[in-house]
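Sample entry (402 residues):
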Amino acid sequence: MAEEQLDRQTDARAASGSATPLLRRKAQAGREEQQARAMSLQKAMRLTLAKVADDLFGMAMATLAVRLEERAGGGLDGLFDPAALMMLLDGPNGQRGAVSFDSALVGGLIQQQTMGQVLADPGGSPRVLTATDAAICVPFLDALLTRSATLPEVPGERQWLEGYQFGARAEDPRLVLMALEAPAYRIMHVSIDIAGGLRQGQMTLCLPLGSAAGSPPMDPQAGEEAKPGPKLLMDNVLALNADLNIALARLKLPLRDLGAWKAGDVLPLPGSRFESVSVLTMAGRSVATGALGQVAGQRAVRLTRRAAPLMQPRRRASDRAELDLPEVQFDRRGADQAEVAPQVDPAAKGPSPEVPPRPADEGAVLPGPSSLPDLPDLPDMSDLPGFGAEDELPELPKRDAG
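Predicted structure, serialized as tokens:
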């Protein structure tokens, strides 16, 4: 009798929904157990980091903490430390990622590969990391990315890590941000224990988020030929904005008139015409002319003529045909080979006799002193001050030399 009453009460609770929380708790416990056994990004990085360090260098590494965050492509400022070793990663379909190792992690990898042991961090200001440091860290980085990409169970997490490898070292955080062009990124911060607590390093991994940063979907009927290539620097430069000014007229005023301007003054614009305006760069150089009007209620300029390009001076032999100048022959003979051109008498029927050339060493002969005429005597100027006997200078006293 008591058992039948207990069964009826159980059925009543099930019918009224009071058993739902019990089932929910059981399901939640099952999900937590499944998630504990599942291979997530954090767990994949923990296992792979220790395994790669031991297999490659016989080095003890352990992950202390793994933190994930997501940022927009324009919100990566301050992510990379200028003192860290920054490296760009090449990914599938021309995608770009980045990773940074701090000086403690780089120093531990170098010491293990060169000395076979890791020393404690001496502290102080870190040294400037070089391309040689990057070359030493590349095997560890590539093996870490390759092995960890195969472990996560969620396809999206595997896709986030797949296909990335070392591309180039970046010397400045600004260069890293210029190379990262995806709209969204997932960032993994990894704190690493090195050699049983002798050092603690930091690794920051920044990769594009799934298809948001990937290339446009390919046409399945187009095949591999439709796969878009990576963006070139020219494509990025041509996509930059260029600000232009439209000038109706140019006006020159004295500085005193300009300082006397006030609200309500009217400025005369001589020669201003809406059908002939100038298109200027921000530096003031004219690039084209056009007509000012409107299109769909908005101001617009229709270009009518492009500014003539600047002419380069013509100096090469290939430009001789365009110079329109006569040919000039230069006489490169020496003085001893020069000849006097024959003089032609217009009245004579034939050319005049040739004048023999004068030897080059034959110079003009000057007359001797005896053949020059005598000069007249100078007048007596003793009466002038300074020329008389009383104006003679006194004798200087004698001094013994030495």
